Amino acid sequence: MQKQLEWIQSEQNQWLKRCKALQQKKYRQQYQQFVAEGLRFAQEALACSNAEVVLIDEQQQDLLAQLAITADTAVYMVKSGLLDKVLCTMHPQGIAVIARQPQWDWQAVGHMQQIAIIDGVQDPGNLGTILRTAWASGTQAVLCLKGTVDLYNDKVLRSTMGAVFQLPVYQIADAAEMEEQLHQWGFTLLVSDIRAEQYYHQMQFPEKTALVVSNEANGPQLLTKGDRYVKIPLYQQAESLNVAVAAGILLYAIRTSRKE
């Protein structure tokens, strides 16, 4: 039986107001929700059971056929033009979801072998690219320290290409407490630092590695002391690599060094 669709005819509708509010971090934190735009994001949110509400422009009704709508997910057809007003992108695809922020079990990190810690990366595109690369490389979780750009910033989300629903990401309020716990679980904190003495291709990576990457201009902000340090060779006169590029090189190096 086809799901009965509801209609939104006014920009005063509660879900359109919610979309607009969720552009601000404080409301994303308050409601534990975020807006994911586009067909691919909608499909990902539905597949992971994170979709609260699906909103579709009335001129894009054909998109319904590409969605696996669950019985408990509300779907609204929105009067043409109204959805565009509350979305961030310049050229919306006519579909968005209000998604629940994924919740991950912190204790599961103790059983992992490869994780990444993000310390003070403030560019949304860089964070999104790191998350996407972490997921692709087999990195099992990412820990974002205070001072890192908000995970659910729309520019971060677009750069992740759906990794936000698949990769456990933890928002860390207390870096010292996190460091103590990771050490108890047997992790070595490996800090990417251009001033390190050892190159990554010369290193034997620890069995349980937590790679720390940070703002390339200012370095680590909260984790000022690691267990080991590593750098990537620069064969020309460049001062440093983009943090997302550096993270990708090191995450893949760590992953390929593991014998499984």
Q: TL;DR of this structure?
A:
The chain has helices at 14-21, 25-31, 39-47, 82-86, 124-137, 154-160, 175-184, 243-257, and strands at 6-8, 33-37, 51-57, 74-78, 95-100, 114-119, 141-145, 169-172, 188-192, 209-214, 228-230. It has 260 residues and is α/β, with parallel strands linked by helices.
Distinctive features:
5-stranded mixed sheet; 29% helix; 6-stranded parallel sheet; alpha/beta; elongated; 260 residues
What would your notes on this structure say?
- It is a single chain.
- This protein has 260 residues and is of the alpha/beta class.
- Helices cover 29% and strands 21% of the residues.
- The chain contains 8 helices and 11 strands.
- The protein has helices spanning 14-21, 25-31, 39-47, 82-86, 124-137, 154-160, 175-184, 243-257, and strands at residues 6-8, 33-37, 51-57, 74-78, 95-100, 114-119, 141-145, 169-172, 188-192, 209-214, 228-230.
- The strands form 2 sheets. A 6-stranded parallel beta sheet has the order 8-7-6-10-9-11, sandwiched between helices. A 5-stranded mixed beta sheet has the order 1-4-3-5-2, with helices on both faces.
- Helix 5 links the parallel strand 6 and strand 7.
- Helix 5 runs parallel beside helix 6 (154-160) and helix 5 (124-137) packs parallel to helix 8 (243-257).
- It is elongated.
- The model has no long low-confidence stretch (mean pLDDT 91).
